Amino acid sequence: MKTINQIKTIDVNALEWFDKVNGNSYFAGKVIINYGADNQITLPLAYQYGYGEQYEYEALKAIKTALGIHTDMNALGRFCDSHKIILRSNKRSAKKAELKKIQKTFELWEVTNADNQ
User: Fold this and answer.
1) Strand ranges inside the chain, DSSP E
2) Is the pLDDT reported for residue 2 higher than 70?
3) In total, how many domains does the chain have?
4) Residues near 101 by beta carbon (within 8 Å), at least 6 away in sequence
5) How far are the Cα atoms of 42, 73, 82, 84 from residue 2, in angstroms, in the given order?
6) pLDDT single digits (tens) 87-112
7) Secondary structure letter of residue 76 according to DSSP
8) Are strands 86-93 and 9-19 parallel, antiparallel or unpaired?
9) Were 45 and a residue from 29, 88, 89, 94 both cysteine, which residue would form a disulfide, CB within 3.0 to 4.6 Å?
10) What is the domain extent for residue 69?
11) What's the mean pLDDT when you consider all of the chain?
12) How far is CA 35 from CA 22, 43, 92, 113, in A?
């Protein structure tokens, strides 16, 4: 994918866990660019601290890094609106083990992709 114009859809799926003992929220998930298309790209959202819409800010950061996009925009919704990209974003509550499982899956995925290059 060479340009922003090739991005038609962005799907962000995140899980959030609230640590009741320390009062912190954490999330993990994935970003799928052009879901179901031949040029589909899946990017990980690593297990990290954050609450509210932080997962969307991190999703845009991952997209900008992976695709080499240079923009001052930090809000995913605004980015999608300005480039006429369909955004589907969701986050649900989960247990810590579910977030760790996602992280483990992406770590294995990164190793496999590195071996195939």
Assistant:
1) 9-19, 24-33, 41-49, 86-93
2) no
3) 1
4) none
5) 16, 19, 18, 17
6) 999 999 999 999 988 888 877 765 55
7) H
8) parallel
9) 29
10) 4-115
11) 90
12) 36, 12, 20, 19
